[in-house]
Amino acid sequence: MSNLRGFLWSMGRCGTKAILDTINACTTAEMPSWVDTEHFINADYFMQLYSRPFALALHFPQHIAAFEQLVRNHRQTPVVMTVRDPIPNLKSYAKVFLKSFVSRRIDQMAEILGSGKSIISNVDPAAIDHMIMPMIDYWRHWSAIKDSPHRIVDLSDLEEPRFTETMREICELFGLKQTRRICWTGVGNTENDGFFLSYRRELPILGRKLELHFTRWSGLWGERGLVTLGTLRSPLLDGLIGPGGSLFVHGRADQLLCSGGIEREREALRLILEHPELSQMIAEVIVEDHGLVTKMVQDEVEAMQNILIAKFEESFRRDMEQFLAVHPWLLERWSSVGLPKVPEAEIQSKRLRIFATAAPGSSLAPGLR
After folding, report:
1. Do the beta carbons of residue 188 and residue 18 sit within 8 Å?
2. Other beta carbons less than 10 A from residue 270's beta carbon
3. Which of 39, 181, 191, 305 is the most buried (most CB within 10 A)?
4. Which of these, 9, 26, 7, lies nearest to 74 by C-alpha position?
5. Radius of gyration of the chain from its Cα atoms, rounded to whole angstroms
C-alpha cells in the first residue's frame, strides 16, 4: 500500500515552501522538495516504495498534463490547491523569473545590454506560454482536482493570522499526525532567493575552475547533477542573507572526482571554502553579481509584468471568471482582477451542475469554510 497522503497543487508564488516546510518539521510525514517535481512524475517506484507517509508538491506549470494524469491515477488522494489574486501573482513571478533568467547567464546578459538590446528580447516567447502562463489557469487546475477530496487555500490563508489554523486543516485533510506545534515562521522565500536559485559562477579554486551554485538550504537546488561541497560565511553576505547567515555551496558532479574519491575531494573543498581569504573573494563576487542582476531586473521588470498581464487578459480572463463564479468567496479577497459581477442565478446554476457530476465523497464547498 502506498504511503502517499496528499498532493499540494501549487503554481506560482502561492506559499508552496511554507506548507512543505511545515509538514516536514511538524508531522510524521515528509514532503520532497518542490524542485524534484520533474523527477517523481514518472517514478512509479517512488510512489509505491517510499518508506514513510509523504505528500507531493505539484509546482511546475509546464507539467500540468502529467499532474492531471497523476491525480486521476490517485483519485481518492486529497489535494490542496493554493491560489492567489492572479495579477499580483503574475507580477511577483515576473520578477522571480527575470532574476532567475539573468542570474544564470550574467555575463551574457551584460553583453546583450551593451549591444543595445533588452533582456526581454532574449526570452523565448514559447517559454512564457509553456512555463509561466499555465500557472494562472485556475479553471483547468480546479477541473483536474474537483473530483478528488480537496481544499482550495488562498494565499491570505497562509499569512500570519490564519497560518496555524490553515496548516492544521491541511494536516487533517491529508491525515497527518502532528509531532510538533505548528507556528508561523515568517515568509518562506526572501527577496534574494530568486537570485540564488539559478545563480552560478565559474570560479578559480587554487588554479582549478569550478562552476559553483549557492542556496540558503542544504537540500535544495534547482537542477540535477549537483553535489554539496560545504558552506560559505562572510560578513559581506549579511545584506543578502541576514547577519551571521551562511550559503550552502554546490558543485557540478561532472567536474568532481567520481566514486571512491569524491568524499575526500568534498572534504578538501569544504576546508578551502572555510579559508577567510577565499571565502571573502567568493563573497565579493556574489555581492557584485547580485547588484548587477538587481539593476538589470529593475530596468525591465515592469515591461515583463505588462507582457504577462496582457497574456492573462487575452487568454485566461474568461476561464478565471468561470473559476470565480464557482468560488465567489475569492472575490471578497482579490482586488486586482476587476471581474464583472456574476449574477447569483448563474453562480448557483454552475455550482449545481458541478455538484451533480462530482464523485461521491468529493469536497466542493468553497474553501471548506
Report:
1. yes
2. 14
3. 305
4. 7
5. 22
Q: In what order do the strands lie in the sheet with 208-215?
A: 200-205, 208-215, 247-252, 226-232
At residue 350, does pLDDT exceed 50?
Answer: no
For 120-154, give the secondary structure using H, E and C: HHHCCHHHHHHHHHHHHCHHHHHHHHCCCCEEEEE
Alpha helix segments (H runs only) across the chain: 16-26, 37-40, 44-49, 64-73, 86-103, 106-114, 125-127, 138-145, 160-174, 193-198, 238-241, 262-273, 276-315, 317-326, 344-357
In angstroms, the CA 294 to CA 239 distance is: 13
Q: Which residue has the cell 522565500?
A: 189
Question: Taking the C-alpha atoms of 294, 300, 306 and 311 in order, what is their torsion angle to the nearest 10 degrees?
Answer: -90
pLDDT tens-digit profile of 79-107? 999 999 999 999 999 998 999 899 989 99
Phi, psi torsion values for 239, nearest 5 degrees: -70, -20
* pTM of the entire predicted model: 0.83
Contacts of 301 (CB under 8 A, 6+ apart): 94, 95, 98
The residue written with cell numbers 489574486 in the block is 85
Using CB atoms within 10 A of its CB, is residue 189 exposed (0-12), middle (13-18) or buried (19+)?
A: middle
Q: Which of 108, 2, 119 lies closest to 54 in space, CA to CA?
A: 2
Q: In what order do the strands lie in the sheet with 79-83?
A: 54-58, 4-10, 79-83, 150-154
pLDDT (tens digit per residue) in 227-248: 888 999 999 999 998 898 899 9
Distance CA 60, CA 67 (A): 9
* CA angle 23–18–290, rounded 5-degree value: 135
At residue 347 the predicted structure's pLDDT band, cuts being 50, 70 and 90, is very low
Of the candidate ranges 95-104, 112-121, 171-180, 184-193, the one whose mean pLDDT is the lowest: 184-193
